[in-house]
Design brief:
Number of domains: 3
CATH topology of the largest domain: FAD/NAD(P)-binding domain
Number of strands: 18
CATH class of the largest domain: Alpha Beta
Helix content: 25-40%
CATH superfamily of the largest domain: FAD/NAD(P)-binding domain
Strand content: 25-35%
Structural class: alpha+beta
Bound molecules: flavin-adenine dinucleotide
Order of helices and strands: EHEEHEEHEHEEHEEEEHEEEHEEEHH
CATH architecture of the largest domain: 3-Layer(bba) Sandwich
């Protein structure tokens, strides 16, 4: 057997899990697809985000909180190991509102969730004037914001690079440009690639993002994953304009303002559209009018990896024990949990987190 674990998919989810398994002394091979593959890990918004997660499933809110709480330590360890810092700021984040009604509705939902989390949901409501003290560039149309103190943001590309570097440094193998076409389990797992390579491993993690929809059923999973497009814009580097991130805009560590993202059900189409980008720009200018003068330098579209209820899926295959499906639509937020906590679940240690609510048995499809 070449490896204890073969990880199918080398995006942020697969690399985070690989990192955690390597730390536990496992032999790991990561098999990552070709350049034409959809890669959410390279096109996302970089938020390490707690608010609004798990409004209908408190365990998801808690799982996001657990990950956010250990993110800084995780980023620091990656930085120390690789010599490349993973920029991270966790001084809170905003949900900005343009109407009192939507602000009140959201507060009511947060209060319900807060009670379910035994009060551990640290947020405050800022009216326009209070918000303006925190964010001098906020526009008059913003009536207020929810400031959640567990929110933050990171540089997702630096995270991806550091993870790949550290996985290799710890002795993991990362095979790029190899597409897995089938997995069989005669004695251990045989992972077959389109170029004829066959890799043997004792266990398999399917973390292939959207690729899991096709491969999943071959391993006994339902894998009901769908794409959802998000378009994103980025401006030239600017002097400090935004202190804390929001779902509308954030100022990245390098100075540009990232604006996004749309939520569009357009199948496997990751192109940008003029209406999509204009809509994003208009909303961002309403929030921060000074952005009207900013030069845009780039735009892109990327596909989210979504389950039917938006929650992660963590499932061991009933037909092929030893094969795990790991997928989520907040792979940056959950990177620390996937690296530091999830391997205990795969290894069934005493420290294994209870992830039962994330099993795919919750989906009625066969
Ligand atoms: C616009 C946008 C904004 C987002 N914003 C945030 C955010 O602010 N915060 C946050 O936490 N999350 C955010 N996300 C979500 C986050 O980016 C994803 O949850 C995460 O990147 C998913 O990582 P992944 O590794 O599962 O998938 P991917 O990054 O898509 O990687 C999957 C990998 O699997 C490989 N693969 C596929 N099929 C095969 C195969 N058959 N054989 C071998 N390899 C295969 C592909 O080559 C690919 O590299 C956002 C996503 C988008 C699109």
């Amino acid at each position: 057997m070449e490896a204890d674990y073969a990880i199918i998919g080398g995006g942020v989810v697969g690399l985070s899990v690989a990192w955690g398994l390597l730390k536990r002394g496992k032999r790991v091979i990561v098999i990552d697809g070709d350049d034409g593959a959809f890669r959410a890990s390279r096109g996302n918004f970089g938020l390490v985000w707690v608010q609004s997660k798990g409004m209908n499933q408190p365990r998801y809110a808690r799982w996001s909180q657990q990950s956010a709480a250990i993110w800084a330590e995780f980023a620091e360890e990656l930085g120390d190991n690789t010599g490349h810092a993973v920029p991270l700021e966790q001084k809170g984040g905003y949900d900005l509102h343009f109407s009192e009604e939507t602000l009140q509705e959201t507060v009511e939902k947060y209060e319900t969730l807060k009670a379910q989390l035994d009060g551990d949901y640290p947020y405050e409501v800022l009216g326009h004037n209070a918000l303006r003290k925190e964010e001098p560039h906020i526009g008059p149309k913003v009536v207020g914001a929810i400031l959640h103190h567990q929110d933050g943001h990171a540089n997702p590309l630096r995270l991806l690079t550091a993870l790949a570097d550290d996985v290799r440094r710890m002795g993991g193998t990362v095979l790029n440009g190899k597409t897995v076409t089938d997995v069989t389990k005669p004695d251990g797992f045989h992972i077959q690639c389109s170029d004829g390579t066959v890799i043997g491993a004792a266990k398999v993690v399917l973390s292939a993002g959207l690729g899991a929809a096709e491969l999943g059923p071959k391993l006994g999973f339902k894998a009901p994953i769908r794409p959802q497009r998000g378009q994103v814009l980025i401006t030239e580097k600017l002097p400090k304009l935004i202190n804390r991130p929001s779902l509308i805009a954030r100022q990245v560590d390098e100075g540009g303002i990232q604006i996004g993202a749309t939520n569009e059900e357009v199948g496997l189409n990751d192109r940008v559209t003029q209406p999509g980008l204009s809509g994003l720009a208009a909303e961002a200018i309403a929030a921060y009018p000074a952005l009207a003068r900013a030069q845009l330098v780039r735009s892109w579209g990327a596909l989210r990896v979504l389950s039917p209820d938006g929650l992660p899926i963590y499932q061991e295959s009933p037909q092929m024990p030893g094969a795990f499906l790991v997928t989520c639509h907040s792979g940056i937020t959950l990177a620390a949990a996937h690296a530091r906590l999830l391997p205990d679940w795969m290894e069934r240690t005493d420290a294994a987190p209870d992830l039962e609510v994330f099993s795919e048995t919750r989906f009625a499809i066969s």
